[in-house]
Amino acid sequence: MTLAASAKQISPPRAPTLRRAWQKVSPYAYIAPFFTLFAAFGLFPLIYTAFVSLYRVELQTPGDMEWRGLDNYTALLSDEFFWTSLRNTFTIGVLSTVPQLVMALGLAHLLNYRLRGRTFLRTAMLLPYATSVAAATLVFAQLFGRDFGLVNFCLGLVGVGPVDWQTGTVASQIAVSSIVIWRWTGYNALIYLAGMQSIPSELYEAAEMDGASRWRQFFHVTLPGLRPTIVFTVIVSTIGATQLFGEPLLYEGSVSGGISHQYQTLGLYMYEQGWGFFHLGRAAAIAWLMFLLILVLVGVNALVARRRSHKEAGR
Fold first, then answer.
1. What is the mean pLDDT of each run of 10 residues along the chain (315 residues)?
2. DSSP of 1-33
3. Alpha helix (H) ranges present in the chain?
4. How far apart are alpha carbons 271 and 255 in whole angstroms?
5. CA distances (Å), 114 to each of 53, 85, 111, 118, 158, in order?
6. Three-state DSSP class for 131?
7. Gap between the Cα atoms of 76 and 89, Å rounded
8. Alpha-carbon distance 221 to 199, whole Å?
9. How far, in Å, CA of 309 to CA of 285, rounded?
10. Model confidence over 269-306: pLDDT tens digits?
11. Which residues pair with residue 58 across a beta bridge?
12. How far is residue 143's CA from residue 122's CA, in Å, rounded to a whole number?
């Protein structure tokens, strides 16, 4: 009896064991809600879209599915409007991304100085981003009006005739790109500003002691220090340009992207096929082609950035 009582007294308590078990399980419990929501609203729709893209599915009868295999993809590759929307997506992406990032870099460089009202200016940079895309597009549609638009009025003051910003291919793409530039320049400028403020001030002091001007400091200190941030903004802007939908849809209110599809993007083309012509299977195939295109573009950007960094590291 004495030995039994002693064994009971020296048996290890259960509380430390439960605490150690909870310490091992708790990290998974904390991240479980995110992965549950991601599986329900991210992963499952992605897999189901790939499944639907292999069938002929109509919006009126979504339960009737006819196996087509890769016929939806081959039909897209033989459709001239698919290639038109792909070309428009590329041109609008370039017209909106390049000026946007260049202007954002310049604005961030100015805001990095000790200016009066810096807080107000930084807050004002986010106002276009916080504005509704519908409101911004409707305003820009009025500004780019052919007969009474403010842009044509200003062009007339310098002797340029009125431009049809809705039916012209290049003109309409410039107009749509200007909406994207206006909305996202301030957002990217604040990202660049945060990256500039993380660059050590000792580098600027050393460059100034060597007699480097502000321009040389910008090109030889600021830009190299911002390289990871620039790669990030390029990748995010590329993804956004590939998925461009709201601006071209609301610019004229047409899913065809103009009379001759002159600014129809892949997002508009997918919407037209799915909810205009009721071909859900083909719309799902377009969505997956857009996904693959994004993967290719992001991979190319990452590969170029990695090769450039390796090249400079080997100098």
1. 48 66 82 90 91 91 88 92 94 94 92 78 86 91 89 90 88 94 93 90 85 84 89 90 91 86 93 91 94 89 77 65
2. -HHHHHHHHHSPPHHHHHHHHHHHHHHHHHHHH
3. 2-10, 14-38, 44-52, 71-77, 80-111, 118-125, 127-130, 133-143, 150-157, 169-197, 201-209, 214-217, 223-225, 227-242, 246-252, 266-271, 280-313
4. 7
5. 55, 45, 7, 7, 37
6. coil
7. 16
8. 8
9. 36
10. 999 999 989 999 999 999 999 999 999 988 888 788 77
11. 279
12. 26
Nearest to 55 by CA among 298, 279, 289: 279
Q: How many CB atoms lie within 10 A of CB 135?
A: 10
| Nearest alpha-carbon partner for 230 in 179, 207, 196, 200 | 196
Q: Residue type for 92, please?
A: I
- Distance, in Å, from the CA atom of 24 to the CA atom of 21, rounded to the nearest integer, reads 5
**78-313 is a CATH 3.40.366.10 domain:** no
Distance CA(126)–CA(119), nearest Å, equals 11
Residue type at 300? Answer: V
Place of tokens 């993967």: 295
Structure tokens at 225: 């220090």
C-alpha dihedral, 246 to 249 to 251 to 256, nearest 10°: 160
Would you state the structure tokens that stand for residue 22, as one six-digit string? 């909870």
Q: Which residue bears the tokens 């007339």?
A: 156
Distance, CA of 286 to CA of 268 (rounded, Å): 10
The residues spanned by each domain of the chain are 13-67, 78-313
Read off the tokens for 237.
């802007």
In DSSP terms, 55 is beta-bridged to 67
Say how far apart CA 205 and CA 211 lie, in whole Å: 10
